[in-house]
Amino acid sequence: MISRSTIKDIAKIAGVSDSTVSRALSDYPHVNEEKRKKIRQIAEELGYYPNIHAKNLRVQKSQDIGLIIPEIQNPFYAYVTRGIEDYANINGYNLLLCNSDFDPVKEAKYLDLLLSKQIGGLIIFPTMLITKKVPTLKKRSIPFVFVDFPAYNLHVNCIYADQQYGAYIAVKYLIERGHQNIVYYNYEKGFVPPGEQMERGYRQALKEFKIKYRKNLVFTLKKTDKKTLYETTYQLLSKKKALGYTAIICVGDIFALSIYEIAPTLGIKIPENLSVIGYDDTFICPFLNPPLTSVNQPQYELGKQVFELLLREINDPLNWQYQTIRLIPWISERKSVYDITI
Q1: How do residues 161-176 score in pLDDT, each as one tens digit?
Q2: Which of 29, 59, 158, 236 meets the CB 3.0–4.6 Å disulfide criterion with 151?
Q3: Residue 136: C-alpha distances to residues 41, 45, 140, 301 (Å)
Q4: What residues does each domain of the chain span?
Q5: 31, 24 in Cβ contact below 8 A?
Q6: Neighbour tally for 144: CB within 10 Å
Q7: Which DSSP state fits 60?
Q8: Does this chain's domain 62-161+299-328 share its CATH topology with 163-297?
Q9: Which of 143, 157, 159 is nearest to 62 (CA)?
Q10: CA 104 distance to own-chain centroid
Q11: Contact between residue 160 and residue 327 where contact means Cβ atoms under 8 Å apart
């Protein structure tokens, strides 16, 4: 296990006193700006974060686990979080929950905050930009897991349901029922890892069935607030006749819910005029009219396995080898897809 870097380590490399380092890191006004930047850069390279519990360093291993998720109001993240929390509590741990709102700046701020505390581990649903923090995280002695993120070549703990495969089987399902003009409704590229994985699956299925990829059938959401979601969905459905599509695959059930609410206002019937497949198979799916077909990700089970993976490293840090766990999604078939081959 790598030991924590200290103010003394930074001072030695920077060639300054311990007190100068302390003042620079605390934004004390009477520190030369060039020297402050140098000290902060060294601190970052060493993976140093001030420990706000420094007076209690002799306390036993922390039972607090930091959890950074995009948005707790999304049913998918809520259920995964519940799985994490239940198994954390069973094992005597507590969760410190942070909502990043898919914002890399906010995510980094929360990460810094959690690293400044004496926490026992970290669980992160990362944005694409979090990969820049991996070297810093690796220098710390705190075990961590990336969730919903296939961390290829990063050599970190990660667990994810294969979104590329999930999107592939959803598009294949639609094609086998006669649909060829299929919209992919996604987050803006680079926003969150699952969206890019799903687009690969979307393209893969189209290619396999020799259907031309149409860029104008990929719609993206630039912000995650409800107003933007509903405005974008309205624009998408308003172009149905012009674009000639017959089906939509959504990156999440929340996207599908917005389609269900807006479609009737435009005279569009589901599934007679428009087939819809959601993603995550959250609790809302069977209650929609018609019940929503969705790609299932085992949410609670995912949460359980996330914590178990983290706990194994916490309990044996010296012999730990980083692990990648891939879960396989499947389609929960209901009534939102129309078979136009019949």
Answers
A1: 899 999 999 999 999 9
A2: 158
A3: 12, 7, 7, 29
A4: 7-46, 62-161+299-328, 163-297
A5: yes
A6: 24
A7: P
A8: yes
A9: 143
A10: 11
A11: yes
- Dig out the tokens for 18 from the structure: 């311990």
Residue 286, token pair as written in the block: 């069977």
Q: Which residues pair with 250 in a beta bridge?
A: 185
**Per-residue pLDDT tens digits for 231-285:** 999 999 999 999 999 999 999 999 999 999 999 999 999 999 999 999 999 999 9
Rg over alpha carbons for the chain, rounded to the nearest Å, is 23
Q: How far is CA 318 from the centre of its chain?
A: 28
Spatial distance between the Cα atoms of 243 and 275, rounded to a whole number of angstroms = 15
Inform me whether the pLDDT recorded for 192 exceeds 80.
Answer: no
Distance, in Å, from the CA atom of 68 to the CA atom of 139, rounded to the nearest integer, reads: 19
Inter-residue contact 293 to 336 (CB < 8 Å)? yes
CATH of segment(s) 163-297: 3.40.50.2300
DSSP β-bridge partners for residue 32: none
The domain made up of 62-161+299-328 has a fold known as Rossmann fold (3.40.50)
Contact assessment for residue 48 and residue 112, using Cβ atoms and an 8 Å cutoff: no
Sheet holding 121-124, edge to edge: 94-99, 64-69, 121-124, 144-147, 158-161, 324-327
Strand partners, 224: none
Query: What global pTM score does this model have?
Result: 0.76
